[in-house]
Recover the amino acids of this structure.
């Protein structure tokens, strides 16, 4: 009798383990049925905005493990999904929805609910960021035209103090204090636009100088000479690259940090022209590696790697903004159109954009899982709504997807 009970329990557990694997795999398969069947850009835009709006206050956890078998073991060990707040995920949603909310009062109200949940009435963080990726979330506040940003001055000041606390001996900002001598490409996107927006608003030129130094130091030591392809990181003492050159989302991080910093600077600022040269050079680089279908791969230099929606969404934003007074601006516009068209083709029926490379494990250690990601959703929304604004003035449209 005891033996039969033991066998029964083991059988039930085995069935449960298999069932969990089946449900998770089956869910992805189910949502990918009729993927990318949107008939026009207007319907698609509304769909991705609706999904982003739902995610803003209920951001899905980011899957960490790449395993697709015996997933219950990862769940028990706490390795299945990232339960900590990833400010860069929420920031991307907020940046995208800020672009879409300019004429949408209902969406503005949803954003206000997020603000009330994230900040106190006195303008402080409810849960103060401990890592510098909180700076991109703080930057998003400057893009909300319908709020009084000075109300959140205490949180913005705390963000500046956090960045100051991460400055290394070389005068640039660390990604994490545990890696004092490493400088990551992600940091360009995390901090530089915030530093310029904050510095201009509150007359702190040292913030702008730090943003410029962070970018130019990375250009010097983290970009491949002449080709302008970034590596994942570099070591400040020996100036050697770390990780691979050409990580797709790494190009996205560098691109969005560069272009938003350049946009924030006034035309008469001495750093503006020098950054513009880099914008032109980087534009040429990323156009070179764009696939025929409009996407960029998870490693852009390897045609064998998979297309990555997160890289495509961020690089489309870069190119859309490199279209005013920039050399070869028309080529940038067309490349951005192709990128947006690709994102339409990988959007699920419920509006979630699929096939983004999962969260990175370490320098040079990348996810093999490609699925949904709030970061991608946010930048697709941001890109599409800017595209629609620009398309009106340029009398240009995305071709309808049949």
């Amino acid at each position: 009798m005891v033996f039969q009970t033991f066998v029964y329990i083991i059988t039930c557990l085995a069935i449960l383990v298999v069932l969990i694997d089946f449900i998770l795999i089956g869910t992805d398969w189910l949502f990918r049925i009729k993927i990318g069947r949107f008939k026009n850009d207007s319907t698609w835009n509304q769909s991705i905005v609706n999904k982003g709006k739902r995610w803003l206050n209920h951001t899905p956890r980011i899957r960490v493990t790449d395993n697709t078998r015996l997933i219950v073991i990862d769940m028990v060990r706490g390795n299945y999904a990232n339960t900590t707040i990833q400010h860069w995920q929420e920031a991307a949603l907020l940046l995208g929805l800020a672009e879409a909310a300019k004429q949408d009062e209902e969406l503005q109200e949803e954003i206000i609910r997020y603000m009330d949940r994230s900040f106190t009435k006195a303008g402080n963080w409810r849960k103060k960021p401990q890592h510098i990726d909180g700076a991109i979330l703080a930057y998003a506040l400057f893009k909300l035209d319908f709020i009084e940003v000075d109300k959140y001055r205490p949180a913005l000041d705390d963000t500046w103090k956090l960045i100051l606390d991460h400055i290394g001996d070389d005068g640039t900002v660390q990604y994490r204090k545990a890696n004092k001598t490493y400088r990551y490409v992600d940091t360009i996107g995390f901090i530089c636009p915030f530093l310029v927006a904050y510095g201009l608003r509150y007359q702190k030129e040292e913030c702008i100088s730090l943003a410029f130094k962070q970018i130019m130091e990375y250009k010097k030591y983290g970009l491949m000479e002449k080709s302008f392809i970034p590596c994942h990181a570099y070591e400040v003492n020996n100036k050697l690259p770390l990780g691979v050159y050409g990580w797709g989302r790494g190009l996205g991080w560098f691109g969005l940090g560069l272009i938003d910093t350049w946009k924030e600077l006034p035309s008469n600022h001495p750093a503006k022209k020098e950054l513009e040269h880099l914008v032109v050079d980087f534009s040429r680089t990323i156009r070179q590696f764009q696939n025929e279908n409009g996407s960029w791969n998870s490693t852009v230099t390897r045609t064998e790697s998979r297309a990555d929606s997160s890289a495509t969404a961020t690089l489309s934003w870069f190119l859309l903004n490199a279209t005013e007074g920039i050399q070869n601006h028309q080529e940038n516009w067309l490349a951005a159109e192709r990128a947006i068209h690709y994102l339409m083709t990988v959007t699920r029926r419920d509006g979630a954009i699929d096939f983004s490379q999962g969260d990175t494990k370490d320098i040079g250690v990348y996810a093999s899982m490609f699925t949904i990601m709030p970061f991608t959703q946010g930048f697709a929304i941001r890109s599409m709504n800017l595209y629609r604004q620009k398309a009106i003035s340029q009398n240009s449209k995305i071709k309808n997807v049949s």
Notes: Strands lie at 62-63, 81-82, 182-184, 231-235, 241-245, 356-357, 370-371. The CA atoms of residues 184 and 233 lie 4 Å apart. Residues 32-394 form a domain with the Glycosyltransferase fold (CATH 1.50.10.10). The chain has a mean pLDDT of 89.
